[in-house]
User: Fold this.
Amino acid sequence: MTKSRLSNNYFCGMTQKRYLFLILILGSLTALGPFSIDMYLPGFKAIAKDLNTTDAKVAWSLSSYFIGISAGQLLYGPLLDRFGRKKPLFIGLLVYILAAAGCALVKDIDSFIVLRFVQAIGSCAATVASVAMVRDLFPVSENAKVFALLMLVLSVSPMIAPTVGGYVTVAFGWHTVFLILLGLGLFNLIASWLWLPESYKPDTTMSLKPKPIINNFIAVLREPTFYTYAFTGAMAFAGLFVYITSSPILFMSLFKVKEETYGWIFAFLSVGFIGASQVNTLMLRKYKSEQLIFAALIGQVITVIVFLIGSINGWFGLAETIGFLFVFLCCLGVANPNALALSLAPFSKNAGSASALMGALQMGLGALASACIGFFEQTSAVPMVLIMTVTSVIALTVLFFGRKNIVAAPAGN
Assistant:
């Protein structure tokens, strides 16, 4: 343990009640971003109508959110290492709250897209801080289990957010969704202030000048374990962004389901991701993370290839489409927590920068993959499934070749 981290001493003195309470707070922070993504999806048509624009233009607000998270994580990584975890977290949450208020009051689509970018910059502070604090507060051997538990809390968001968002949009209008998000940001700010420990002492040796920061990120990227599992996880996860971006048009425009029904479909599909992440916890008792992520990606690739062939030939309707997406998300639910844990395993001092870089890769590649949807005329599921297939195959390829460069070594970078 380095002098800056609480790590094992804190973990050893932690009661079971405190352990679960800490997981809930960290999970709430982690869920803020996904809630901000999922809750307004059923309101796409209403937003387009009120702001006098198209569904496709509204979808850019989702892409701008992904870009904001990617850029913001690179910003917060060094700040979390330099000033500790809590101060940058508080600043980010304040930015999020103000941007959510702006989104609720916005009158034109261009301002809405910009405010969503700013909102993402704020929310990613919570994402980076929560991941880094897992590495701070828990020993490496516990990380995969803790990430899986965080996913249990995190996964409440895709089950609840779009369903609630659909009903709120119909009953009160889409503006109210952003007032609810404002309230969630305020709750996280208060909970973090009162109950989260400062898990990392400020490192005054950490420079905030561009050159040292870039060098620090380069040092992280040179670690074979990091670049193998971070790029693998990011490419696999990119398929989720493609699905999220495409789903409002796929289900509400092509399959003609109502806003409330779309919310329930989205919630059902999330069960696959949630359930698999928890089954992963049980499987970790018998199998290693390296084995589980490899098996999950093979299953993911097989699923999307069959899905793509069927979609091109017009074999699948609504039920079959939901079924294939469910299996895809199950595979991702196993791959993701193991990719997170394996990526951060070599690091202690640079855990904040490593988690930020990993998150930036996830969000950046996810934003790029989801933006590719705009190059296709989405008259079927084919564009979505095609991009999901490409990202999944790349993820498996990176894992297959990258892990050959990994040499077992003690943590401590």
User: Anything to note?
Assistant: Residues 408-413 have pLDDT under 50 and may be disordered. The chain is about 80% helix and 0% strand. The two ends are 11 Å apart (CA to CA). Residues 92 and 125 are 5 Å apart (CA to CA).
